[in-house]
UniProtKB/TrEMBL annotation:
Lineage: Bacteria, Pseudomonadati, Pseudomonadota, Alphaproteobacteria, Rhodospirillales
Biological processes annotated in GO: pyridine nucleotide biosynthetic process
Pathway assignment: Cofactor biosynthesis; nicotinate biosynthesis; nicotinate from nicotinamide: step 1/1
Residue ranges of every copy of the Isochorismatase-like domain listed in the record: 8-206
Lineage top rank: taxon: Bacteria
Originating species: Roseospira goensis
Single GO term (MF): metal ion binding
Name by which UniProt lists this protein: Nicotinamidase
Keywords assigned by UniProt, alphabetized: Hydrolase, Metal-binding, Pyridine nucleotide biosynthesis
Keyword Hydrolase: yes
Length: 210
């Protein structure tokens, strides 16, 4: 596989222990993305990792809402919010990157979801869709015009990162076999539809190599 152009960045989303088998919010077969990501990363000049990084008692945790069950919905000031099992708590083993993930090539790690009262699926904006993480500015300063995205989970953090990348004017390619989905109540098919409607290209790692 030849090197990608210098204006293309690789964004690796939330490949963390808690999202992999055995973790607190495991995505089925989530660890299967690791070899795909590791194979692709050396071909990009700019590589960015995101890391879910919640304080204990985060507002998106079902445990903080009496009577709520994980994966139920609630209303937050910024809109509807899925209530999750406690996961990716700052400094815990579950918040660490998967041990086989090659993190050495990353020039930047974006930690998200660290504000106690607001979740953050996207690498670019928190869930109010207005509070920036700073990633857009970083990529602009690096001359990036196209992002290739892989990671976890396809139908949440990858989806919102892809949509927000389009929102800030970037071309976006999502590596389908470099992602896995939670698929909560049909969220996988809905995510695929939303990406395509937004002009996101969804393809496989082999197609990228070609």
């Amino acid at each position: 596989m030849p090197p990608y152009p210098e204006d293309t960045a690789f964004l690796i989303v939330d490949v963390q222990r808690d999202f992999c088998p055995g973790g607190a919010l495991a995505v089925a077969d989530g660890d299967a993305v690791v070899p795909v990501v590791n194979r692709l990363a050396p071909h990009f000049r700019t590589v960015v990792l995101t890391q879910d990084w919640h304080p204990p008692g985060h507002a998106s945790f079902a445990s903080g809402h009496p009577g709520a069950t994980p994966f139920s919905m609630t209303d937050m000031p910024y809109g509807p919010q899925v209530l999750w099992p406690d996961h990716c708590v700052q400094g815990t083993p579950g918040a660490a990157f998967h041990p086989d993930l090659d993190t050495a090539r990353a020039q930047m790690i974006v930690r998200k979801g660290f504000h106690p009262g607001i979740d953050s699926y996207s690498a670019f904006f928190e869930n109010d869709h207005t509070t920036p993480t700073g990633l857009a500015g970083y990529l602009s300063d690096r001359g990036v015009r196209h992002v290739v995205i892989a990671g976890l989970a396809f139908d949440f953090c990858v989806l919102w990162s892809a949509l927000d990348a389009r929102k800030v004017g970037l071309a976006v390619t999502v590596v389908e076999d470099g992602c896995r989905a939670i698929d909560l109540d049909g969220s996988l098919d809905a995510a695929m539809d939303r990406m395509r409607e937004a002009g996101v290209t969804v393809t496989g790692a082999d197609a990228l190599a070609a």
